[in-house]
Amino acid sequence: MSTTSMAAQPVPRRRLRWRDRLRRWWWACLQPQPVWRLGQRNLYLLPTRPGWMLLGTLALLLLGSINFQLNLGYALTFLVAGSAAAAVWAAHTNLRGLTLGLHGQAELWAGRAGTLTVRLDPGPRTRLALELRVADAEADPTALLDVPAGQPTLAAVPWTPPRRGRCPAPLLEVATRYPLGVCRVWSLWRPQAELLIYPTPEPDAPPPPRWRRDDADPGRGHAPQRETGMPDDVRAWRHGDAPRRVLWKKAARLPEDDPTQWWVRSAAAQAAPPQLWLDERDCGLTDPEAVRARLCAWVLAAHAHGLRYGLRVGGVEVAPDHGAAQRRRCLETLACH
């Protein structure tokens, strides 16, 4: 078979195992809840691998004690079995009565590791060796913590968002193996919340253009020269002007006895920061996701330098402004359009 014919064949999709299909069906049946309180109806329990090994060992001990009529064997078997049963009860009690809820939202970027803040209310009981993770993200690590009695605690759950835009909160899993690790008690919670995922900024993005040639606003870019040869953002010196507003580098080349030839920066030019437009047509890219990654990097750079900037992407235009509110508006536009 030739290389061309092999490349033309479609790649077969990986067939899901019956356990994966059952798990996804179960997860799809869970309804979103704003707050999740753990109780008898939503806690599940299964033995761990050490627990299954302990059950097999107890079965062998019991068979040997019956065969050889060993009273000490009976005592050891039922002592260990009673300890394992007490451990199962303690693990279930460790989660029963715990309340979970989402607490605010940190900035999340598509494809970049982030965190979800979960508020844990333990009630009157101390919760030990809790495990918190995103159920459908196997690659993300698990958060481990203890929660003292009567002290609500904030837990940072690692999560890597798969895509940008508005998406529902992921399925969360809380579990424990405390105290002996012979069983695992867990519960699944789908938070009733919508998260905003920003596009990941392009690393080492080129600097944005200062202005577009088809923009007629002189405020975008450098100020043009008037007929007198003086830029719009400066004016001639007048009596009473503060010395800090004089362009001293220019004045050093002029006669000292004639301050009327000095240039002074106008108050309007000092109050208004530099302004530029961030336009998707200036990116020079064809992939929509790559365009938004570059625009995201430009927005962060313009905000870091305190510039007054606007955004044009996907048929949406954000008016020029500066500050944290403008940064949030531009990032939200890039995430949703």
Number of helices: 8
Tell me the radius of gyration: 33 Å
- Largest sheet features: 5 strands, antiparallel
Mean pLDDT across residues: 82
- Sheet-strand content, in percent, reads 25-35%
Helix content: 25-40%
Order of adjacent strands in the largest pleated sheet: 2-11-10-6-7
Low-confidence runs of at least 5 consecutive residues: 1-13, 212-229
Distance between the termini: 45 Å
Description:
The protein has 337 residues and is an alpha+beta fold. It has helices spanning 3-8, 18-29, 49-68, 71-95, 248-251, 267-271, 288-304, 324-336; strands spanning 35-37, 44-47, 99-102, 108-109, 114-121, 127-134, 143-147, 153-159, 165-168, 172-176, 183-189, 194-198, 234-236, 263-265, 275-279, 308-313, 316-321. The strands form 5 sheets. The protein has a 5-stranded antiparallel sheet. A 4-stranded antiparallel sheet has the order 1-3-5-8, with no helix packed on it. Strands 4-12-9 form a 3-stranded mixed sheet. Helix 3 packs antiparallel against helix 4 and helix 7 packs antiparallel against helix 8.
In short:
By secondary structure, the chain is an alpha+beta fold. The chain has helices at residues 3-8, 18-29, 49-68, 71-95, 248-251, 267-271, 288-304, 324-336; strands at residues 35-37, 44-47, 99-102, 108-109, 114-121, 127-134, 143-147, 153-159, 165-168, 172-176, 183-189, 194-198, 234-236, 263-265, 275-279, 308-313, 316-321. Strand 6 (127-134) and strand 7 form a beta hairpin.
